[in-house]
Amino acid sequence: MAVSAATMTVASLGPGAARIVIAGDVTAACEQALMSAHEKASDTGAKLIVLDFSEMEYMNSGGIGMLVTLLVRGQRRQQRLAAIGLTDHYRQIFELTRLDEAITLHDTAESALAAR
């Protein structure tokens, strides 16, 4: 099976908030790309980082571990993380791993913004 390299795109969601659109396969191999995207979002002063998984194709345990690393980095900066665009399968994985207790799950970026 060919692995599609993940790409991360950062966009502003207004003052104090940024979105990171995650496309492709989320594995440990894309850690540098995600951490760079987080750095870029943080540089804008974002205290809410919305991870948009709507273009994600696949995530393995290495990708879950990478999200935990991102969560720790965000907590050190007093940032909140939210996730949108997860399929039912990945929502269930977030719940089973209890990631949903630290990364809030929302249907849209607007609902993530409204919950802050």
Automatic annotation (TrEMBL):
Gene3D superfamilies: STAS domain (3.30.750.24)
GO molecular function: anti-sigma factor antagonist activity
Ranges for domain STAS: 7-116
CDD domains, per database record: STAS_anti-anti-sigma_factors
Pfam families xrefs: STAS_2 (PF13466)
Domain of life (superkingdom): Bacteria
PROSITE patterns per the UniProt record, alphabetical: STAS
Stored PANTHER family: ANTI-SIGMA FACTOR ANTAGONIST, ANTI-SIGMA FACTOR ANTAGONIST TM_1081-RELATED-RELATED
The protein's name: STAS domain-containing protein
Origin species: Naasia lichenicola
